[in-house]
Design a protein that fits this description.
eight-stranded mixed beta sheet
Length: 269
């Protein structure tokens, strides 16, 4: 079945998702920051016979119209999933970047219903203290708001640090992309705050994986300046072979046609 664009009503919001395939296995996909469900279309032909694939646009991404304020609970995402899948249907998870954090949080909610997980350049395996401070504390939110309104001083400081080789130049490009223009800053503010409840605990995730014997595949880009392979290497240690790691000759942008075969091989049995 070719990919189709679908919607469902959730409270006052409209949740957009893409669906394709007619296979007996169900796979839920979660995109990275600033991306959308169509990011997974490069896997369509490879997976359509084995999987029924559901890729959901998270709040303030893609075609989802989120009207519930700046809050999205993991239980709400599970509610949305339950409206899409057949009752009692177990599923696989595929999370890219920010979607990795989302997938790990779902694992902690319903471990008995997760059959396997594929995490591609995943967030959620390392602690981002600065992000949690910015979205999880009153003082942090105040500072975060000020930075979003007037980011000039922060950008100037990071530019200087990069010139002194105290800050990664590639990371600096990411920062400028999201902070230079007011519309991008506004979206960053909304997205970070809305998804702040998705903060899986690494130790708990690993414990659940081992107890439930859930196979997990980690895929990293060797030259990724954002999500480092060492985060996955630490997570995969002493996992009784359940957590495997592969490193591709790539950067962070792994949802590309040229990596389709390398990624799909972990899903097609």
């Amino acid at each position: 079945m070719a990919a189709t664009s679908q919607q469902l009503r959730y409270r006052n919001s409209t949740i957009h998702y893409t669906r394709w395939g007619s296979g007996p296995e169900w796979l839920f996909c979660f995109h990275g920051y600033g991306e959308e469900s169509s990011s997974f279309h490069f896997l369509e032909k490879t997976l359509e016979d084995q999987y029924t694939v559901i890729a959901i646009d998270l709040p303030f991404h893609g075609g989802t119209q989120w009207q519930e304020g700046l809050s999205f609970e993991p239980a709400e995402l599970l509610n949305i999933i339950d409206q899409i899948r057949p009752q009692g249907q177990k599923f696989h998870l595929l999370g890219y970047s920010m979607g990795g954090r989302v997938s790990l949080q779902l694992l902690q909610l319903v471990p008995a219903e997760v059959r396997s997980i594929l995490l591609v350049a995943p967030d959620g395996l390392h602690r981002k203290i600065w992000q949690r401070l910015a979205t999880g504390t009153w003082m942090g939110k105040q500072v975060f708001t000020q930075v979003m309104n007037r980011p000039g001083w922060l950008l100037a400081a990071l530019d200087t640090a990069a010139k002194l080789r105290l800050y990664n130049r590639n990371l600096l490009k990411f920062v400028h992309y999201y902070l230079d223009e007011a519309p991008q800053r506004e979206l960053l503010y909304k997205r970070w705050l809305t998804l702040r409840k998705f903060k899986p605990k690494r130790e708990l995730s690993k414990k659940i994986i081992l107890q439930n014997r859930i196979p997990v595949q980690l895929v990293f880009g060797r030259y990724d300046p954002v999500i480092l392979t060492r985060y996955g290497a630490a997570f995969s240690k002493r996992s009784d072979g359940l957590i495997s790691l592969t490193e591709l000759e790539a950067g962070h942008q792994l949802l590309r046609e040229k990596y389709a075969a390398a990624i799909a091989r972990f899903l097609v049995k």
